[in-house]
Amino acid sequence: MRGKRLFIAVFLIPGLLLYALFVVSPYAQAFQISGTDWSGLSPSYEFIGLENFRRLVGDGYFWNALRHNGLLLVLLPVATILLGLFFASMISVGGRADRVGVHGVRGAGFYRVVYFFPQVLSVAIIGVLWKEMYAPHTGMINGLLRGVGLDGLAVAWLGDPRFAFWCVLTVLIWMNVGFYVVLFSAAMQSIPRDLYEAALLDGATRLTTLVRITVPLVWDTIQVAWVYLAIVAIDGFAIVQIITDGGPSSSSDVVGLRLYKTAFADGQFGYASAIGVAMFFLTLTVAAMFLRVTRRDRVEL
Amino acid sequence: MKGRSVPALSHLFLIVWALLTTLPLVWAVLSSFKSDNEILTDPWSLPSRLRWENWSRAWNDAHIGQYFLNSAIVVTGALTLTMLFGAMAAYVLARYPFRGHRVVYYLFVGGMMFPVFLALVPLFFVVRNLGLLGTLPGLTLVYAAYSLPFTVFFLTAFFRTLPTSVAEAAQVDGCGHFGLFFRVMLPMARPGLVGVGIFNFLFQWNQYVLPIVLMQGEGAERKWVLAQGLTALAVNEGYRGDFSGLFAGMTIAMLPVILGYLLFHRQVQSGLAAGQLR
């Protein structure tokens, strides 16, 4: 029995130590630091209670950033999931229809492989690549616009406060759609083909079968996608920091970037931790909300 | 019925998105062979010849080679630690019910629910106080620690699915706890280990926020990882006007991952899908 105890201890302790030191303790300290006016340089700091949070509520920059996260939170999951479902249904039921039901398109494997490319690339590469694509003179996008004679549309995409946020949103959609195409089309593979056959015989259109058959049967997967994309939308840090650095004039700022700059550019560690705590509660709320909203009776086959 | 037009239409849409996905990548590769002048005059022109000197300039002068090596060192170390400690902890949590094993399990798994931003400020000081700020071992340990929650979660579930009969037989044959784990259970858990290993590799290789927070300070530029070095290059080359060098750096960073993915695309897709469905 003693041997067994020793074994359990030897196997658990290395991982636990590493985890406690670098993950658990920072998370716990974050809540504590958020109640101080610590500026990091001096070892001394005062507990100021909820003062940081009071300041947060009146901070226009924070609300501006939060508004952008809110927009991402609505637009990113909706756009990504719709595009994902659209392409996934093309792949798995977009082929010819005959007496044994509908088929997937030919070359489905090819599409699945190619669509996944952005998923394996780092956000740094994607960010830098798109920053260059949006570049006013040397960029691919304006090169195309000028090439087809739309010189008037070839604007400084990232230098214009009207466009910067939408440029960021486009990149986030671009880099996420492929993954959900693969995920949704995998889920659609398990739907029995004869369901489609029956529906088509009854005169249903492809759109009807998508809405009435496919979507309800992959609802679980959609729900997972929704939660995960919401987490991406609450973050958004890397792409924003690389492509626009929140600008111009904070027009594409997000909360994660606020936190990063407050801490590592301004040295206001207490206040930055308060922003972190706000982000944590935002994540919790959104997760709980989505799970509630998307809960639906599961269709059993 | 209109059955014939549907496949054609499907392909049309699918090909448009395939082009949207691949063209930017192809554009970066092509631009890495162009001269700065060619890039400035027409972004869509083809390179007049293959200028490998852009690549060597990026590799040497822009230190992409150094960053590549740093990334490789950190990820190799971190992945080893993650898989070893993660598998050990998961195995005990799955097969050795002890007092408080539930608490330990939820402590590990709970880490998946917190946004990493919450930890950034304290983590910076934890690492600094250990004297590990701006060092490769420091980043290695942090990567490993932040990969543990998902690894433990995934592998605990996996070890639970393995049949107990094999373990019992081995124990009857006099196999000790350690031998049972390393000689019997780990080989049996191979498919699970490969899946979570691929997920962790991409998580660590593509990490961005942790290195930019932890690899700052004096002399840290020499220790930068690829993701960080590339974005710094993008900022600097913009001033210097070395566009071709930037595209070459981007291509060097991109190609190994894409090639590795093409070789193992099935495993990568299922590994990442498993990561999402937690």
UniProtKB/TrEMBL annotation, chain A:
GO process terms (BP): transmembrane transport
Sequence ranges assigned to domain ABC transmembrane type-1 in this UniProt record: 66-290
PROSITE patterns named among the record's database cross-references: ABC_TM1
GO cellular component terms, semicolon-separated: plasma membrane
Lipid bilayer topology: Multi-pass membrane protein
Alphabetical keyword list: Cell membrane, Membrane, Transmembrane, Transmembrane helix, Transport
Record keyword Transport present: yes
Transmembrane annotation, as ranges: 71-93, 113-130, 163-183, 225-244, 269-291
Subcellular localization: Cell membrane
Family the entry assigns: Belongs to the binding-protein-dependent transport system permease family.
The name this protein goes by in its record: ABC transporter permease
Organism whose genome encodes this protein: Actinoplanes awajinensis subsp. mycoplanecinus
TrEMBL record, chain B:
InterPro entries in the record: MetI-like, MetI-like_sf
Transmembrane domains' residue ranges: 67-93, 105-127, 139-159, 180-203, 243-264
Chain ranges of the ABC transmembrane type-1 domain: 68-264
Primary localization class, coarse: membrane
Protein's cellular compartments: Cell membrane
PROSITE patterns tied to this protein: ABC_TM1 (PS50928)
Alphabetical list of Pfam families matching this protein: BPD_transp_1 (PF00528)
Keywords linked to the UniProt accession: Cell membrane, Membrane, Transmembrane, Transmembrane helix, Transport
Membrane topology: Multi-pass membrane protein
Protein family (similarity comment): Belongs to the binding-protein-dependent transport system permease family.
PANTHER family to which the protein is assigned, alphabetical: ABC TRANSPORTER PERMEASE PROTEIN MG189-RELATED-RELATED, SN-GLYCEROL-3-PHOSPHATE TRANSPORT SYSTEM PERMEASE PROTEIN UGPE
Name the UniProt record assigns to this protein: Sugar ABC transporter permease
Natural source organism: Actinoplanes palleronii
